[in-house]
Amino acid sequence: MTLGEHVYLYCERGTNGALWAEPINAISNAGFFLAALIFWQLVLWRPKEQRSPDHYLFVALVFAICAGSVAFHVYADRVTELADVIPIGLFMLVYLGFALNRFLNVPPGWTVFLAAIFAGLVAGSMQIHCWEGGIGFAGGAPDEKVCLNGSVGYLPALAALIVVGMLLAERRHKAAPYVLAATVIFTGSILLRSLDMSFCQRVVIEGRPVGTHFIWHLLNALVLFLLMRASLETGTRPVPATEAAAPPAGEQTPSAESEAEADKPKSETKAGQPANESDETAPEETKDDSAKAENAEPAEEEAKPEPEPQAMPESGTKPEASTIDNDKDKPEAAEKSMANASPDIEEENAETGNDPADREPGGQGAGNGTAKKKTAI
After folding, report:
1. What domains can be seen in the chain, in order of their start residue?
2. Whole-model pTM?
3. How far is CA 376 from the centre of its chain?
4. Which has the closest alpha carbon to 42: 229, 221, 182, 234?
């Protein structure tokens, strides 16, 4: 194999070695030129702080892809074949590193490592050949040829787009729609590139078979534009999950309800306390009421009228059992009641000659009655 050897891979060229044997394939590369030009203008419309050297690198690589592909479909030799595939390979590596680092925040070291693995996969897939009854790496079989018309080398790029697109969609990144759309279109373009020779006689323009390779060019130009357009979304915030599933109108989320509850003053929330909290405060309120009642007792005693002298029980009459028990339990209350007796009772005792100490137990019942009244109060 020499560098000047012609390469016959596509339907439109067939076995014709002329320079202008693939006019449709050559002209269809204008799609790459337009994609790079339009994206370049989009970058220039952005503020300077939103521009990145990566954007200009993408534009340069797409222009290089356009030029290399035109040269290959005009000259169709080994040298121009390298001019065609090298810019494509560089774009895939650069964009993969950009997506890992800028979209997915993968550290630079891991980005380089993953990009190196990707490059190895691409190089290895390009060495896969097919022959009658077998598939594998090139081994010198007489009838071996590249599988899928040379499209196997693009399968690692398709796999990388699928993974990156799914991760971006999971994170609700604004670049996800562009990457996912590019993935779908790239799948179709690989299929059409693989079927170029199979549909050679079915796709005819002005009486000459052209195949489907030119559609590969047009679709890939759209793929590259979408990927470059996605790069402009770097640095933007992911779409919040609340926007995708907003609660119905008038319905508060649990967090909003908790915040609203926390903002309420204690005076408002005290009425709605649980039963256990109100039970805890009940003993304190009872204590306050009992304290107020005790403070009110002296005032009621001062306002109470003087008790009338009660008749002494007849001799030999036993006091009731309840009265004796109360006298035993509350002697202090009885003494206090006797101390508060009016002077009239003392004068009456003096006139009648009755000594309070000589009274029978029934006489203490009056004091007990007063004590019972105080206790009731």
Report:
1. 23-239 (1.20.1070), 319-377 (no CATH)
2. 0.64
3. 67
4. 229
Buried b (16+ CB within 10 A) or exposed e, 344-377: ebeeebeeeeeeeeeeeebbbbbbbbbbbebeee
Q: Which helix (H) or strand (E) holds 146?
A: strand 145-146
Which among 342, 334, 346, 339 has a CA at the least distance from the CA of 370?
A: 334
Q: Do residues 51 and 59 touch, judged by C-beta distance below 8 A?
A: no
Residue with tokens 């121009």: 80
State the DSSP code for 310.
P
Q: What is the pLDDT of residues 79-100, one digit of tens each?
A: 999 999 999 999 999 999 999 9
Burial letters 101-111, b for 16+ CB under 10 A, else e: bbbeebeeeeb
Indicate whether 282 pLDDT > 60.
no
Residues 6+ positions from 326 with CB-CB distance below 8 Å: 368, 371, 372
pLDDT > 70: what percent of the chain? 62
Paired with 77 in beta bridges are 6
Phi then psi for 75, rounded to 5 degrees?
Answer: -95, -35
Phi and psi, residue 51, nearest 5°: -85, 155
Neighbours of 238 (CB within 10 A): 13
The total of other beta-carbon atoms located within 10 Å of residue 115's CB is 18
Q: Which two tokens stand for residue 223?
A: 């793929």
Burial class (CB in 10 A: 0-12, 13-18, 19+), 178: buried
88's CB contacts (< 8 A; 6+ apart) are 65, 68
Q: How many DSSP H helices and E strands does the chain contain? A: 16, 5
134 vs 193: CA distance, rounded Å? 21
User: What pLDDT, on a 0 to 100 scale, did the predictor assign at position 5?
Assistant: 85
